[in-house]
């Protein structure tokens, strides 16, 4: 049986906000002994186990970690629930509960760090928590996937802080972390062709790789072409960007020739919105409305789909798609309506037109 005594003592001590000295004084040992227990370098005498368990108000079995398998089942179940949510408040509630219960699990710490970076303000106390978790993961976690994901979130935090006056963080701090991360060619998706012919799920692995590459390409594409020109200076004319978006949508419609966009549903819907914005900016309101209507039609189709569907395009024949991949609470019509009415830089005259108002009605 694997012994989890040391990490359980540390977890229980931290949950009760006790120092090693306080626990050592109660048990009549040195704080170095407690430190050695928590690092797994030694164990307390067996006769002390009832006293330690009583002190923390747990059973000896719980202290030893006999219920480790049950804990793992709970962690996996709750993390799956967390990963399938888009509602920020629900995600925060789940991850805080898990962190309090399992404070040393790196899978949980990574997601807690994610919430702090993406959902909370960059206040000094939150930044301190993020940095502490990041250092813990980098120094103590042996899972490369978790360590690299933590770097990604840390780079994002430093990027934001570098733009905040008085933060003490420069973009060079962000760039340092970026350069420590592997290039895309070193990611697991790039080695799908290593799987031998006839290997179980070989085709599914290849399909997932293709979708991931399409998704990553669009992410860079959108930030380079869409956000440039609206939020930053652009090196490209509106006419060229319009052509670029049309070309990308033509490509995606060629790849997903059955009209089922799988993991790219949200991407395609939003790209029609980007296309509409460019037409509007260039003064072609008719084409803008046409693109926005396409966006709305696809949003309605997505929301009306069953949770589990099968794709039938040439490239993805037989691949199952779970809508919850995009978040269990993701409602496309609601998101599209918010974009059209609140987020997109459209004039009040355009939004007051009969055609625009009629289009919004179908999203209700």
Can you walk me through this structure?
The chain is mostly helical and 364 residues long. The chain folds into three domains: 5-64, 434 Repressor (Amino-terminal Domain), CATH 1.10.260.40; 85-181; 194-361, no CATH class. Helices cover 65% and strands 2% of the residues. The protein has 18 helices and two strands. The protein has helices at 5-15, 20-27, 31-39, 49-56, 60-64, 68-83, 88-101, 106-119, 124-140, 144-162, 171-180, 202-227, 238-255, 265-281, 285-304, 332-343, 348-351, 354-361, and strands at residues 308-310, 320-322. The protein has a two-stranded antiparallel sheet. Helix 2 crosses helix 3 (31-39), helix 8 runs parallel beside helix 10 (144-162) and helix 14 (265-281) packs antiparallel against helix 15 (285-304). The mean pLDDT is 89.
Count of individual beta strands: 2
Distance between the termini: 57 Å
Q: How is the main sheet built?
A: 2 strands, antiparallel
Helix content, binned percent:
55-70%
- Please tell me how large the radius of gyration is: 26 Å
Number of individual domains: 3
The parts where pLDDT drops under 50 for at least 5 residues are none
Mean pLDDT: 89
- How much of the sequence lies in strands comes to under 5%
Biggest sheet, strands in spatial order? 1-2
Report the structural category.
Answer: mainly alpha
Element order: H for helix, E for strand: HHHHHHHHHHHHHHHEEHHH
Shape: elongated
Number of helices: 18
